[in-house]
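Table 4 source record.
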Amino acid sequence: MTEQNNQPIRKFRGELGLSLAIWENRTTGEDGKTRVRKSATLQKSYRKQGDSEWSQSEISLFPADIPVARALLDRASSELPYTITEEEASDTSS
């Protein structure tokens, strides 16, 4: 049986609508032992062009996924220019 906490155990907010939550799930195995498994959810909040409502996109990561995701993001960072448009800046300040 898996018991998931409805609230993250930690939450971090970054710029540009990015946030990360750390979750803790407890599982009781057939042997009766309780195991704890942690995961992270990376979320991006954004507004679609011409829309006043916020939307979210998210991905769940297990601990082993994080170094791989970090390496891929580092590679993307070196390939993509870091510029913020005026519209992006105003959307994240709301």
